[in-house]
Design brief:
heterodimer, A: alpha+beta, Ubiquitin-like (UB roll), B: alpha/beta, Rossmann fold, eight-stranded mixed beta sheet, three-stranded mixed beta sheet, 11 helices
Chain lengths: ~90, ~290
């Protein structure tokens, strides 16, 4: 099973207190389910404490890139050894 | 421009500045620059460019030229920068571009100042609440640097008018607050062959990237333009006073690097600045 790196950035890193973790996952769905299991409730709890209501799973309210491109652009969902998932909150302010 | 009379007047007005290290630099004052421009019926920036070409630095740019050189200052004075949005990011970008000495600024914003802008939007004051942001910014530029010319557009930039509004720019700076407008600007810049400097903020966090026409750009971060997140987390956590200034300053550095050729723009990477913890990250983006 491929070993992949999951990195958290900006507010998500602050709220979770984690820079990065290593997972064994053969597909994106599998990796995202593991991320949700380990961090989903903790992140939503932190967000609630900040007055932010986040609904759904982490992938529903985060920007997630696989090796530097948005998951929204990807058709294939298989993972390979050494892949990196980058996860952070959406920011659009100016 | 830069005729014999102007060159002679500049030479007559030049003084020698001795730096703390003992080096001597020929310089010309703002008062003399303006006087020459008025008497020769020439734009102030043309007098400044002519002086720089003679190796004479306008005093006001003396602290610029150590980094970008006289040639870099000339390139900036000959450049046109479009700033889309004159709010938090855009207001500070405009202020710094005027001080840096870019030749022409196009300011595009259809919005007016409101009280909730006062915490962070540099061009807003208690006196100009209700005024158009672009108009207030143009007035501020005139006060800071009379060599800089400004074109304002009090329209909302859309996919339909973006090409027309941006076509004269050498670089376009992002002072926007929504993703659909950012994608419209990026597309127009790509079509027109113009570099685009993206910036965005939320809370104590900011993001930055320079997108050249051949770069993959915003879709790497947000996905295709037809599947964008509705809103960012700043809707809940706000935009405190210093965050736009932090990212706008970096956007201006990008513009200076692009125009002068000094340094290396942040291309194909997303730069994330987390002021809450004092951490800077760069995520390498896919080039496909």
């Amino acid at each position: 099973m491929p070993s992949i790196c999951v990195k958290f950035y900006s507010l998500w890193r602050q709220y979770l207190g984690v820079d990065n973790i290593t997972l064994q996952a053969k597909s994106l769905d599998d990796a995202l389910a593991q991320v949700e299991d380990r961090f989903g409730s903790r992140l939503r709890e932190q967000l609630r404490a900040e007055g932010v209501q986040a609904d759904g799973r982490i992938q529903d309210y985060s920007l997630i890139l696989l090796n530097g491109t948005s998951l929204r652009n990807l058709k294939q969902t298989c993972l390979k050894e050494g892949d990196t998932l980058q996860i952070f909150p959406p920011a659009t302010g100016g | 421009m830069g005729g014999k009379d102007i060159i002679q007047r500049i030479a007559e007005s030049t003084e020698l500045h001795t730096a703390p290290g003992g080096e001597k630099y020929p310089v010309i004052s703002l008062k003399n620059t303006v006087s020459i421009a008025q008497s020769q019926r020439t734009p102030i920036k043309e007098v400044e460019i002519t002086a720089l070409k003679q190796g004479i630095t306008p005093w006001r740019y003396l602290r610029n030229t150590g980094t970008i050189g006289l040639d870099g200052q000339i390139k900036l004075l000959q450049s046109t920068i479009a700033v889309v949005g004159a709010g938090g990011l855009g207001g500070t970008i405009i202020e710094l571009l005027a001080r840096q000495g870019v030749g022409h600024i196009i300011i595009i914003d259809n919005d007016r100042f409101a009280e909730q802008n006062l915490n962070r939007q540099l061009m807003s004051t208690e006196k100009n609440l209700g005024s158009y942001k672009a108009t207030a910014a143009a007035e501020r530029v005139k006060d800071i640097n009379s060599a800089v010319t400004v074109t304002t557009s009090l329209k909302k930039l859309t996919g339909d008018n973006a090409h027309r509004l941006l076509k004269d720019a050498n670089v376009v700076a992002d002072g926007l607050d929504n993703l659909s407008s950012r994608f419209a600007v990026e597309k127009a810049c790509r079509d027109l062959g113009i570099p685009y400097v993206y910036g965005t903020i939320a809370g104590f966090i900011g993001q930055l990237m320079t997108v050249f026409p051949e770069d993959t750009g915003l879709s790497c971060i947000y996905g295709r333009s037809d599947s964008l997140p509705e809103q960012g987390i700043e809707v809940k956590i706000g935009n405190p006073s210093a965050t736009p200034a932090m990212i706008a300053a970096l956007q201006v550095q990008e513009i200076i690097k692009i125009i002068t050729g000094v340094g290396k723009p942040v291309r194909n990477h997303l730069f994330i600045l987390d002021a809450m913890e004092g951490i800077a990250d760069k995520i390498e983006l896919s080039r496909h």
